[in-house]
Amino acid sequence: MTKEPISNIILSRYCNSVNIQASNNDMALDFMELPGIPRDGKQVVEGVRVYMTHEHARLMANAILSTLQDRNNENNKDKL
């Protein structure tokens, strides 16, 4: 048996909106695709809710920011 985990992505969704809720114990992130789809006379927005600890949310935020900064730096190098 290997010690390295193997990713098994079971769900893939496009997201252009996120709603974040925080409690004393954890965070809930609702990733949604807007504007949604009309269903039975209402606009239904489908999404995925992810729960995580505050520390994991902090780690994710730092990873996203670092990745965006790296991408921005790469794009600026290409323009020179």
Q: Please identify the structural class as seen in this structure.
A: alpha+beta
State the order of secondary-structure elements, H for helix, E for strand: EEEEEH
How far apart, in Å, are the first and last alpha carbons?
48 Å
Characterize the main sheet: 3 strands, antiparallel
Number of helices: 1
Principal-axis shape: extended
Strand content: 25-35%
Rg measurement, Å: 17 Å
**Strand order in the sheet with the most strands:** 1-2-5
Give the domain tally. Answer: 1
- State the low-pLDDT regions, or none: none
Give the strand tally: 5
Mean pLDDT: 93
Helix content: 25-40%
How would you summarize what this structure contains?
The protein is an alpha+beta fold. Helix content is 32%, strand content 32%. The chain has one domain (17-79).
Write the layout of secondary structure elements.
Elements: E1 17-22, E2 26-32, E3 37-39, E4 42-44, E5 47-53, H1 54-79
Antiparallel strand pairs: 1-2, 2-5, 3-4
Polypeptide structure, described:
- The chain has 80 residues and is of the alpha+beta class.
- The chain has one domain (17-79).
- The chain is 32% helix and 32% strand.
- It has a three-stranded antiparallel beta sheet.
- The mean pLDDT is 93.
Describe this protein with a few key phrases.
80 residues, alpha+beta, three-stranded antiparallel sheet, 32% helix, two-stranded antiparallel sheet
